[in-house]
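Subject: two folds for Thursday's group meeting

Dear M.,

Sorry for the delay on this. The cluster queue was jammed most of the week, so I only got both jobs back this morning. I'm pasting them in the order they finished. Each block is the input sequence followed by the predicted structure tokens. Could you check whether the formatting survives your parser before we put anything on slides? The first protein is the one we discussed after the seminar.
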Amino acid sequence: MKTPQPDILVLGGGVIGLSCAFELRRRGHRVTVLEQGRCGGQASGAAAGMLAPFAENGEQPDPFFLLCLQSLRLYPDWQLAVKETSGLDFEYARTGSLYVVYHEADSLVLASRKRWQDAYGARSELLDAAGLRRLEPNIAPEAAGALLYPEEAHVYAPDYVQALEEACRRTGVVIRDGLGAVEVARWLDGVELRASASGETFRGDRLVVANGAWAGLTESVFGMRIPVYPIRGQICAYETPDRPVRHMVFCSQGYVVGKRNGTLVCGASEDVAGFDTTVTRKGIARLESWNGKLFPFLSGRRPFHEWAGLRPASQDGFPLLGATSRSASVVFAAGHYRNGILLSPATAQVVADAIEGRETAGLPLGAFAPDRFGD
């Protein structure tokens, strides 16, 4: 006789929670998502949607880079599955990316990056100033060169998250949003969560903690350190119907990425502001200052849209991912900082494998152990 699948509660309806729910449901599990606000209402919907593990990691092939790289390579099949299941389209553009430098001496740093990253399949190309301008004619004349990563891509985050939610609903995931604060009332012997405002109780066999910047608030519940903190990320966008930027473009100050809808997204200005998502003039002015130096056509222009989201940053920069040693009933998927969109398919794979009692091949998962910070 087939063993019945456990009932799984997913705490958090952002891109990570929805991705875990979608993958678990595809594997036949019964899943309920519990969200305090609206799905994708924080870091997920506010993200620029970049899938750029090479451009955003120039240091070394650490465990976090390997996780990001695996997720990038899951994306082609993953995004197709989300589109086909949901019946909704969203932008997935393999434009490639450019990491731009302003000084000739920095080209030596790019050459060093190229050597170790190409060993992991980057297929990068080192460009001089003339080669860079052939690819991005509107780049600042001061730009001295760049490293091109042809494999990297981006998605339009709001549409992607909406499609994920619809894919979950169509496959039978129960989504309860607008609950307000949700408390973990029991987790050692079965799982019980309670919506504070209404008192409604939800019971299951297993719990996936995927509530982003709020994960740190559960420290006292689980009796272990969960150093995940909200970092306010401010982003702005310009109307550029002529689409003057062809690639995702990174520099030491931030990034610029053009979307199919004719907007140019620039980010990100980050600061510590608790759970405050207010957009500040100081934060947006910082973006306006450097993006005009990267693309002069932006100088003096005001963005038409400004917004902010809370990014869940962990103490060591690595997400908390997998089961805890305290109870097999609880699996964490939190602390993804600014990489939630990129890491959604790999995280879903790791979490579903953990629920099923197996380890995801090819990843040094010990580096992401949720209880690595101690009691």
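Second protein, same layout:
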Amino acid sequence: MMTTTTANEGSVPIRSEHDVVTSRQLVRKLTQQLNFSLVDQTKMITAASELSRNTLIYGGGGDMTWQLRQEGIRHGLTLNFIDQGPGIPDMELAMKDGWTSGSGLGKGLSGSKRLVNDFDIQSVVGQGTRVTITRWK
């Protein structure tokens, strides 16, 4: 699957470590396009990197979709990380700082939530997970 893009939205496959880097580079470009401050760029890039890695490692790969948003005078960037992996059996536990189902630091989901303005996660065991984040300017 190839990267697809229109003026205000697109998607990037996350199937390899290289795709994690590509997603991070794209988010950097989009946050710069939106004139986010360097701090806000870094927060969104960091969250995207963590969630891309989770999509690859825990979800077995998937896609990152993005959408440039405008609500009134504010602009934002929404990212969706979608996989068809095993899902998250205990969401409350998964959102706790320090908990990991693998060898990571356990900061991915909870840390990403702190870095963005809007965070939503939906997961069904055996069907996959979708994490949606938005950062507003």
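Two things I noticed about the second structure. The helical segments are 17-33, 38-57, 91-94, 108-115. The CA atoms of residues 7 and 29 lie 13 Å apart.

Cheers,
T.
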